[in-house]
Design goal:
Elements: E1 4-6, E2 10-16, E3 19-24, E4 30-34, H1 40-54, E5 58-63, E6 68-75, E7 78-86, E8 90-93, E9 99-102
Parallel strand pairs: 4-5
Antiparallel strand pairs: 1-4, 2-3, 5-6, 6-7, 8-9
C-alpha cells in the first residue's frame, strides 16, 4: 500500500483490513511513501522494484524522523535512486511537477 499516489486509473475502492485500498490499473505519475520502522526495508528495497516493473516513473520515500527524502526515477526498465535531501535542506524537483519546500517543515 502507498501513502500517497498521484495520477489516474483506478477502478474504484473497497475496504481493506488496513483501510481504503485502490485497484490501480495504470502506473501513477508519482508514488510517495512515508517511512515507518515496521516497513522501512520494504519501502526502500522492495517497493522501488515493484513500482519500476509497474511503470511508475517517480517514487519518493519520505523519512519524517531524519527528516529526509530519497527520490527514485524510472530509467529504462529499472528504478534509479537519485538524490537524497536531508535536514534543513530545501527539496526541489521539476518532475513530475515543480515543487519546492524545506524538509524541516515536514515535522511541524
Amino acid at each position: 500500500m502507498l501513502d500517497v499516489m498521484a495520477g489516474e486509473g483506478h477502478d474504484g475502492e473497497h475496504e481493506h483490513a488496513r483501510g481504503r485500498h485502490l485497484h490501480v490499473l495504470v502506473p501513477p505519475v508519482l508514488a510517495v511513501e512515508i517511512l515507518s520502522p515496521s516497513s522501512r526495508r520494504t519501502d526502500l528495497v522492495a517497493k522501488p522494484d515493484v513500482l519500476a516493473r509497474f511503470g511508475c516513473r517517480h517514487y519518493w520515500v519520505v523519512d519524517p524522523q531524519t527528516p529526509g527524502i530519497r527520490v527514485y526515477r524510472l530509467v529504462g526498465d529499472a528504478d534509479e535512486s537519485g538524490e537524497v535531501v536531508m535536514g534543513e535542506a530545501t527539496f526541489e524537483v521539476r518532475e513530475p511537477f515543480e515543487v519546492s519546500f524545506r524538509l524541516s517543515d515536514l515535522t511541524r
